[in-house]
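Support request, please re-run this one:
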Amino acid sequence: MTALALKGPYWVTSRQHRRVLWIALALAGAAVAVLITSRLWSDSTVETLRATGCAYNSLDPSCFQHARDYADDQWLARHLVEYTALGMLVLPVLLGAFVAGPMLARELETGTYKLAWTQSVSPARWLAAKTAAPAALALTVVPLLSLVFYWSWSTGPAEDYPTYWYDPTMFVSFGIVPTAHALLGLGLGTAVGVLVRRTVIAMGVTALLTGAAVAVLARLRADLWPIRTLTGPVSPKGEVWRLDSGMLTSSGERLLWDDCIAVRPQNVRQCMTDRGGVVEFVDIHPASHYWPLQLVESGICLALAALATLVAFRVLRARHP
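Re-run finished. Output below.
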């Protein structure tokens, strides 16, 4: 979406906030560059170690320094991915705060919106134009970031310093959840900006609401899809998300390992047996639950975003019929 392809209030909005939009694109480009650098850096360290004829776990003393250099470089490469993941985590907060404050609340606070409304632009069309640019940004740039993130995360230093799909920062950095979170921030920012009408306050309230929503979703994530329970002397294989684990009594009561670790750390199993435990259990989300969890969380985000946007339009219509 470029300013040349837009007309009316959409063109005005893109011109009015073009600096911030270009900064956002530049930051997205920088994030892509960091992710590509991490992947290429990791590949380079693998080739460098292979050229020495050493292996990472070699016991040969002459390979010690080569293996250490390899580990240090892979560690730094992994950190680049993790730092980008933190950026993806706070992206919906930044997007929502920008929409709530500079794009909406400031114009409603200063009264500059009246000029647009005297140019045959209805309040609803004005609000739609104000949210179109960040929405387009979220729907185009965020999915691209997610794809590049997955490419960099799933390869590179993943073997030596693994992070897993269910880690809080990883789960919101690839797939469809990042885009859904961004749209949630946009929807909340739109509603708060119209309701509060004070720039700084609107930015703060939106940041708090969006951050709280993301935190609550992370807290509830494990329960968004039915948990699989394994019993017996099992050891789940693969990248499974382990939740509760312990032993079951003959009546089906659950005893958690943590309870006995706190009471009798020197003999945990005996403690569980004394309390009536007869068979082990573990609650997991296998890797096959990744997409169901992504879809359910995204659906919740989109529903909340749509509700918040609807509230914004109804409030604006009620205040400016």
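The chain has two domains: 3-224+289-319, 241-285. The mean pLDDT is 86.
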